[in-house]
Write a structure and sequence with these properties.
Layout: H1 2-7, E1 16-19, H2 24-34, E2 39-42, H3 49-53, E3 61-65, E4 71-76, H4 83-95
Parallel strand pairs: 1-2
Antiparallel strand pairs: 3-4
């Protein structure tokens, strides 16, 4: 996903993740180790506010959200083979 974000950053594509990790230091260390630069929203493990709002049924869950705020795609799980399909959807979104 970071590859897609990098390819389409100039077109306004934003990538962020939601973490249920208890420690921001663990998340920061992971991002540094993997050389990732996207934003991470920390969700409360007990309350699960973000996960509940977006009805996250598994981890990872991917959302493609249009500029108008509508959820265009929701996908539970990730397979590297899906990257091409996701890129086509991202390209359609950034073209408008």
């Amino acid at each position: 996903m970071a590859i897609l974000a990098d390819r389409h950053a100039e077109e306004g594509l934003l990538l962020f993740t939601v973490s249920y990790d208890d420690s921001t230091s663990h998340v920061k260390r992971f991002l540094e180790e993997k050389n990732l630069s996207f934003s991470v929203v920390m969700d409360d493990r007990e309350k699960g506010t973000t996960g509940e709002t977006y009805q996250v049924g598994g981890i990872p869950t991917l959302f493609l959200i249009g500029r108008d705020g509508r959820i265009v795609e929701k996908r539970i799980g990730y397979e590297p083979g899906h990257l091409g399909e996701l890129e086509a959807k991202v390209e359609a979104l950034v073209r408008g």
